[in-house]
Amino acid sequence: MGIERRKFLRNIGLTMAGALTVRLPVLGSAMAACGHLLFTRQPDAAWIASLYERGNATTYLKSRNELQYIGMPVGGIMCGTVYLGGDGRLWLWDIFNKNQEGIEPKVVNYSANVLDGGKKVRSRDGACYIEPSKNIRPLDQGFALQLSWGGQTIIRKFDEESWPEISFEATYPIATIRYTDPALPVAVTLEAFSPFIPLNEDDSGLPVTILSYKIENKDRVPVTATILGWLENKTAIYSAGDAHERVNTSVKGKNWQGIYETVRTKSGNDKDFQQQYDYGNFCIAAAGNKVMVSPAMPTGELTDAHFSLMSAKQAVKGTGEKLTGTVATRHAILPGRAIRTDFAISWYAANLHFKDIQGEGRYYANKFTDAAAVMKYVLENYARLAGESRQWKNTWYDASLPWWFMERTFLNISTLATTTAHRFRSGRFYAWEGVGACEGTCTHVWQYAQAVGRIFPALERDTRQRVDLGIGQMPDGGILFRGEAEKRPAIDGQAGTILRIYREHQMSSDHAFLQQNWPNIKKATLFLIRQDRNNDGMEDTPMENTLDAVWDGEIAWIVGLCIAAVKAAALMAAEVNDTAFATICNDYTEKGKRNMETQLFNGEYFIHQPDKVKGRSVIGSYNTCHIDQVYGQSWAFQVGMDRVIDREKTLSALKALYKYNFKADVGHYIAAHPGGRPYALAGEGGMILNTNPRNEEFPFGVKDAWQLGYFNECMSGFEHQVAAHMMAEGMTDEALTLTRAIHDRYHAVKRNPFNEIECSDHYARAMASYGTFVTASGFRYHGPKGFIAFAPAINRENFKAPFVTAEGWGTYTQQGSNHTLQLKYGRLQINTLCFQRTGVKQVLLGDKKTPATFKEENGYVTIQLATSLQLKAGQHFHLTIV
Q1: DSSP character for 319?
Q2: Rounded to 5 degrees, what angle do the CA atoms 226, 232, 236 make?
């Protein structure tokens, strides 16, 4: 059922920029002039309908003051954080292994109490949500254009101050920036990115940023264009002192040339210095055979002299002096023609260390010795790296789903390209919850993050095997929820990890992962089952959960999550022919489902049944409407499982969440319920974690626990999982409205669109957003079985979307009775396909009847091919179902 449509949404939280595709009436010239619209009530039918429109890429403009907060991560995944600003300059540069909390460690004042009763907000409390970071530039970097035509010459930096208009297309992983000046004879476009290739975590994990400039001559006379790039040498930025000196040296390779920037001890004894956490080097280079370089850029404003031919080989300066290397390319461009010139900046800071963690150093140090070696690899393999990255971008956004939706559900995977996520030299993946906050790849947070397991499944498989079922597994099967940093499991993290194991198995090409790890998977599942002390199928052992407390009683969201996890274990048991254990698991889930639906459903939504002895003397959600109450069913849809909770009761619960917890404007609610962290502000829309529909005096049992603040917050990771679930259950209006509310909270006019904040910046749980794309596509996949299925939730008769499998990715198209899988990368084995169809008479492969069997069940047709089909990149598979 759709949401109420009687009232027009005038909520300031659902802020719409003029360039966005959602159609809304202008509410006054003052608001129109500032480039966004304000709302105060619930959405009407016209606004809801606009959410479904395909639209165009979200484009932020200088003229609307939308560039200052943009920080798109454009370094390789697990290589530190380098931001691309709205004007094309690079900033932040958190690549020096400082392990700081937040992209900008700071404390800001807030108007209301936060968690502990204070009015100071730290990075982990949302400081950058209230006061977004901008213009953090520990080193000087930039590009500039020298343009000559018709007897005149101009010099123009590529920055916000130098152009009448700049536009930024927010299409991660490749942003497109356009510099516009009607007085100039050229159109200038920048594409900025680091190689990003799904299923290829190594080539997506290069410490480099590529800046590809295109200049088109729009005039009738030839122009000469020179692009100059510069990079200040700030190697060993924190540890270098008077005893050190910085050195810039010209370097070259096959079809590229640049400046290599490093630092050394004046005495020549560098052994100890090279162990410093921030020790390393840089390289700036350009592709081509006629690159001009200079190891020492002259000081002062840019003049023609800066663009002259440069030939010195090396420059050395003390750390108290500024040393900046430059590279430049020059092109003569005829009327109507265009050129593209590619620059790159690489870095190398391999001395990554964490206290008491098994593993250190950065993974990229296995392949490269310094930034120049990185540059050599990138530019000598540029055609493939850039080509496959651009192909992924085109594949992702070439979809029938709305542009804004494709952006918001995918861009959070950029968290991997920040200092939230790391990869040790051993190959181990290791992460905070958010930048520098809460260590140990926390199971009860990271189990929400659906993106990594679908885009880089090898990373997740390794983490399950190496950490969760290895380093972190106790003899009784419990999984330490922060690896070495913890001494106990978390109940939701345990259940979520079993579900992730099932996902990782499905995203494998064969059964090897499951078979190798089955004994430990079984132990982990038995641990979960044993937490049901009264043997009613509902977990009731007090244990840590993601809301940082130990809850007693039988809690719907934890009970349902455990049921889903044990059901996943039953399915895995069947695949390894462990029928006895499959029976144990199925008995547990059937009993748990029955009791959950009868005992924990209050007629409208699912609740927390207090412990019979302790009652409400400890913190809990009790009779409140909790955001995760049917999370187990949400997870089940992510791995293609059938129902684990009754459909009608689940729908009732989701409708209650929308009725009680979703606020078009959270302002009144958070004013009346202080204590939460500011992840949504007055005038913004979002879904509150817990609400109190029964108006109980002490709905959460205790009166003053610090964790009570959580219940009054809007945390986007939780919201995304609810949106994903709503999408799967056919509540598409509500799913899109909730996702759009998050998207608009992170509009660039207010804060960084690429930084969804919870406990610090770039919070891992926000990668739950990819799950909403999964359910919008109705995508199900089981690699070892060669099974693939689609059941679009939106625009079924004319649907197009990307898909990623264990070894390949491409595009799925559904037009009427025609179904096509076009593979763009890798390979794909198909044995069985499933689509949402009824009344099937025959299946045609191309224009021929395919040797296959098919059966209909519950509105779906399953097609079993007689012979396994092997697709390679560039091939397609076309089915007609009539």
Answers
A1: T
A2: 155
Neighbours of 393 (CB within 10 A): 19
Distances (CA, A) of 393 to 309, 478, 756, 779: 36, 40, 21, 19
- How many angstroms separate the Cα of 700 from the Cα of each of 31, 712, 861? 41, 12, 46
Cα–Cα distance, 672 to 694 (Å, whole number): 16
DSSP code of 106? -
Structural contact between residues 741 and 684, judged by C-beta atoms closer than 8 angstroms: yes
338: tokens are 């265009």
Residue where a domain stops, chosen among 753, 775, 797: 775
592 shares its domain with 527: yes
* CA nearest to 645, candidates 660, 629, 656: 629
Is residue 403 located within the same domain as residue 544?
yes
Last residue of a domain, which of 722, 747, 775?
A: 775
Per-position DSSP letters for 46-86, written without gaps between them:
HHHHHHT------EEEGGGT-STT--EE-SPTTS-EEEEPT
pLDDT tens-digit profile of 433-479? Answer: 999 999 999 999 999 999 999 999 999 999 999 999 999 999 999 99
pLDDT in tens, 666-694: 999 999 999 999 999 999 999 999 999 99
Asked if residue 70 belongs to a domain, the reply is: no
Q: What span, in angstroms and rounded, lies between the C-alpha atoms of 120 and 274?
A: 38
Q: Which is it for strands 152-157 and 141-149: parallel, antiparallel or unpaired?
A: antiparallel
Tell me the H-state helices in 76-213. 127-130
With b for 16 or more beta-carbon neighbours within 10 A and e for fewer, the 848-880 pattern comes to eebebebeeeeebbbbebeeebebebeeebebb
Residues 230, 297 contacting (CB under 8 angstroms): yes
